[in-house]
Amino acid sequence: MMDRLPGFRDFYPEPIPHPDVWSSDARHYLFSSWRTTARLYGFREYDGPPVESLELYTTKSGSEIVGQLYNFKDKGDREVSLRPEMTPTLARMAAAHERAYKKPIKWFAIPQLFRYERQQKGRLREHFQFNADIIGEADPAADAELIALLVDSLRALGLTSGDFKIRLSSRNAWHEFYTRGNGAPEGEYAFYQAVDKIGRDPLEETERKLAAVGFRFAAVRDFIEKGEPTDELRKVLDNLDARGLSEFAQVDYHVIRGLAYYTGIVFEAFDVQGELRAIAGGGRYDNLVKLLSGGKVDLPALGFGMGDVVLMELLKSRNLLPQFTSGTDVFVLIEDQSLRFESLKLVQALRSEGLAVEYSLTPMKPDKQFKRALELKSGFSARIERDASGGTMARLKNLKTREESVVPVPEAPKELQRKLPA
Amino acid sequence: MMDRLPGFRDFYPEPIPHPDVWSSDARHYLFSSWRTTARLYGFREYDGPPVESLELYTTKSGSEIVGQLYNFKDKGDREVSLRPEMTPTLARMAAAHERAYKKPIKWFAIPQLFRYERQQKGRLREHFQFNADIIGEADPAADAELIALLVDSLRALGLTSGDFKIRLSSRNAWHEFYTRGNGAPEGEYAFYQAVDKIGRDPLEETERKLAAVGFRFAAVRDFIEKGEPTDELRKVLDNLDARGLSEFAQVDYHVIRGLAYYTGIVFEAFDVQGELRAIAGGGRYDNLVKLLSGGKVDLPALGFGMGDVVLMELLKSRNLLPQFTSGTDVFVLIEDQSLRFESLKLVQALRSEGLAVEYSLTPMKPDKQFKRALELKSGFSARIERDASGGTMARLKNLKTREESVVPVPEAPKELQRKLPA
């Protein structure tokens, strides 16, 4: 039997049939929640192609990125790649038509992203990511607005400050530290990468890397431990405090973000119970739009990305995923086959009123139909019955309370709509 | 400036900045409408990977299909393809775990699909498609249920029987006609393809193709014109009639569907004003699950696909797309900078109540803020003001009726929620 490609996921309706596949219901729940919160914050949705020219990624990240990309040559001999991240597409799209939009541009997307490293057995080659970005505002007020969105996106899923925190840091603070320590410009990115790996690299490795660019580990550690917020960070903290969100944010200079293009405040949301596992990350990239537009458009920008895989694990471990059902409002029982067509008419009438309706497509024993209605966790059953005068009535039954009522068939849709929770 | 790859689309928030890009708002509207209607019919959402092994498509359609696929070799030297259609993925997924689901399985998906023919300048290489399928039910009652879903998916978008019809046909009817006419088995698919092209091929071409498999055009034309429904089609028509949907369906043996794998009833939704332009198409493919599961799972199945491109054009031409706005419920005006933090607190409180809120991130002249609130078509503005005693109140203004009210700041969220349309 043919299987899916390694590293890709199949999404099935709940209850999922096998631990090896994913829940399409949970995915829909997550995406809907992301969309709703983004809209509360005035972010508008955009999307671009899942395939872009390879150059879009190498321009931004250098050619060493290619080893991690799901890249290939298309039939027109173009070097292309499945998108590994959304920011280059966003920068390209914003640069192309920024004049049509008032600044700041607040946009979000939920792209599927791809990667392909040769040695990554058992690792996923795709995931979905909630991306939110603000383009055209240099003030830290934009950083605060974006971080507040991140906090509320996680809170909307039931997570609290006992589950996650936002660690705030600043490339500017690190740049100043590096400059004050007489670091040479050509070593600065290597320095950031060494700091990024503190706690993950062995201590000697960190010391060696820092020494190579002229720094002692003790000085770096002291700077982190002191954690003195820059003016910029102070503004963000005060802003979040005004919103009542200060319990979610803390300065932590361990965070520096691996990517080269960040320019200002950077941050990560992390799982406080999961050994600081990162749930989301982002920051300012004030030079990227200019770089990717060939110098034509120069706009400050910032954004974050939040993946579905870690988040879904987190929600599961905290028991925060709702129980997903078929969503059937009404199961229409067809017991008397001479009433099948009249029952189909009722099915149609109920659906036309916005009710989700199931029924047995073919004749089935009454008890089996009823069992199916219960399995689907239908709110109500509806059955057309003949009355004494040979006419028909609809018998409606609340399948939780077992309350029944009998109404004229044409009144059944409105009656059920009234009885069902909104 | 870097551009997207040819044949791919960028989706921007409305109002779209250029005729060359697409509306993300219209896309979201369409997808939401598809999802809602599918759920009313008890269909559950699934999804698979956008990349599958090439073999999944060549097994089903033969190696000649490769010329139309967006296929390539991945970094692990696998022959793979971006999915050109959803049915093979569905058959693969259903076959893998069908035992976990009660039959019939009713599933839908909204995949992005891809193709790549070398000579197709200016044509799109991707589109989105609404796919709905029923697996595990051989009775025509399933065909009727699926066709009713197709009708209601289009009606939910505001289209009427003046806009579209479903043309019903039957591979069985054509098979019987072909057999009765002593057609040889090896010529049957060529015969179907000739019929499929009637009206599109020149008449002589049709006559030549039909003669090659032993048929006269006149006989074929008579069969189509007579349009005698098979028992199976009659059952579907009666079923649709019971639902009150007969005005949407008609037997039309011109329809035969190009693909080899259809086995029973086939159908197309077409635009009645657009020279019979096809909006959607589908039918029974009772042998495909068996074929794609290597003989392990044998289940009858049927489904349809409806693309976003033709449908979007149709909706535009009929003026059926709603006017999309930013969806801002409340614009918080911050005129007095000493009240900025209190205003941010209000912004947060409003969003926590589920209201979509915008405000100016940085100080801006009051009239500019007000202008921005109007541009965003916000329902209300809210402004914190100092009262005579030095305390603060919230002034709420309905931006359509211009009605104003002044309430204590903590009461503003509930007050606005009450005033805004649900």
Q: What's the structural blueprint in terms of helices and strands?
A:
The structure is a homodimer of 422-residue chains.
Chain A (H helix, E strand, L loop, with lengths): L10 E2 L9 E2 H17 L3 E2 L5 E3 H8 L8 E4 L5 E4 L4 H11 L7 E5 L2 E3 L11 E10 L4 H16 L8 E7 H10 L7 H9 L6 H10 L4 H10 L4 H12 L6 E3 L13 E7 L5 E8 L3 H5 L8 E7 H10 L12 E4 L6 H13 L4 E3 L6 H10 L4 E7 L5 E7 L5 E5 L3 H8 L3
Parallel strand pairs in A: 1-2, 3-7, 10-11, 15-16, 15-17
Antiparallel strand pairs in A: 4-6, 5-6, 7-9, 8-9, 9-14, 10-12, 12-13, 13-14, 17-18, 18-19
Helix pairs in contact in A: 4-9
Give keywords.
alpha/beta, homodimer, 35% helix, 2 domains, nine-stranded mixed β-sheet, five-stranded mixed β-sheet, 14 helices, BirA Bifunctional Protein, domain 2, Rossmann fold, 422 residues
Explain the overall architecture.
The structure is a homodimer of 422-residue chains. Chain A has 14 helices and 19 strands. Chain A has 422 residues and is of the alpha/beta class. The first copy, chain A, folds into two domains: 307 residues, 2-Layer Sandwich (BirA Bifunctional Protein, domain 2), CATH 3.30.930.10; 90 residues, 3-Layer(aba) Sandwich (Rossmann fold), CATH 3.40.50. In chain A, strands 3, 7, 8, 9, 10, 11, 12, 13 and 14 form a nine-stranded mixed β-sheet that branches. A five-stranded mixed β-sheet of chain A has the order 16-15-17-18-19, sandwiched between helices. In chain A, α4 crosses α9. Chain A starts with 10 loop residues before the first strand and ends with a helix. Chains A and B meet through β1, α1, β3, β4 and α2 of A and β1, α1, β3, β4 and α2 of B.
